[in-house]
Amino acid sequence: MIVNGVEIGTGHRPYVVAEMSGNHNGSLDTALRLVDAVAAAGAHAIKLQTYTADTMTVDVPDERFRVSTGHDLWSGEYLYQLFQRAHTPWEWHEAIFERARAHGITAFSSPFDATAVELLEKLDAPLYKIASSEITDLPLIRLAASTGKPVIISTGMASVAEIGAAVDAARGAGCTELVVLSCTASYPAPPQETNLRRIPVLAETFGVPVGLSDHTLGIGVPIASVAFGACLIEKHVTLDRGDGGVDSAFSLEPHEVTALVTESERAWQALGTTRIGPTEAERESLRFRRSLYVVADVRAGDTLTGANVRSIRPTGGLAPDAIGAVLGRTFRHDAAKGTPLTWELI
């Protein structure tokens, strides 16, 4: 998958996506400052969510439409009011996309219905992300895929069969560039339920590049995901975790996004190969292994003792394990302190 000239997939540095979600707190100025901060942090992309409360649900005071009491972030809140508070107004999208383009980063979004896809097509969105809760909305997946743009599908809560149906729907509608994201759809997500070992399983099962949509605290989990082959990392971002934003409590602040970009690339570079043995970078260090040296001036006929021969750095003399074979023997020649011990000297 190539997005704005950046290749996403196996063999390439992790592609870092900063999810704005509702952390603009109802302010376009804050949304634009988030774009500025994400760009300065080195992320590849900023992602929005394109919906309204009315495209997501209905305003009904029924328990079925209410978040369970005791939820870490949205306890007892009705879905309609939550989506009202968290949505990104559609009239903001163009300004946000333009700000991202000015910085040279990608702006894209998760559409939640056909009208959202229509809006994003008008803005020339370069790709689409299907949110975890929408993975069973196969008509939406087919619509996004039919645009010919790359598609990212998040798999939180999904079974293997549901992921397979979503991948088939995207491919059947013409999608040729597809990334699947391992995800735990809990906010925040417990690290012990992130199950990073499923990343290579997803890649092998569905024949696609796999990334991570992560809702744990901090950057430890996404950095670890790189070792399992994650090619894309998505994390929520906020200007200030203490500002009361809808997702701020489990979001990264800008300086943490910088660390994520830096450390995920470092982790990817460290994967290397399966070769065992000294590397080019270790060539100088090889010289400073221990070997046997003359450590005091000696004359021909002197006995080799622990006082005049020791294992020291660097290399050049006999191997340290030869000490038992040389002690008690005599020197054949004079030797100055700092002379490598060789069989010719004994």
Automatic annotation (TrEMBL):
Membrane-crossing segments per the record: none
Domain AFP-like: residue ranges: 291-346
InterPro entries: AFP_Neu5c_C_sf, Aldolase_TIM, PseI-like, PseI/NeuA/B-like_N, Pseudaminic_synth_PseI, SAF, SAF_AFP_Neu5Ac, SAF_PseI/NeuA/NeuB
Pfam families per UniProt: NeuB, SAF
Record SMART domains: SAF
Swiss-Prot/TrEMBL GO biological process terms: carbohydrate biosynthetic process
Taxonomy, superkingdom: Bacteria
GO molecular function list: N-acylneuraminate-9-phosphate synthase activity
Record-linked PANTHER family: N-ACETYLNEURAMINATE SYNTHASE (PTHR42966), PSEUDAMINIC ACID SYNTHASE (PTHR42966:SF2)
Protein name: N-acetylneuraminate synthase
Species, as recorded: Krasilnikovia cinnamomea
Taxonomic lineage of the native organism: Bacteria, Bacillati, Actinomycetota, Actinomycetes, Micromonosporales
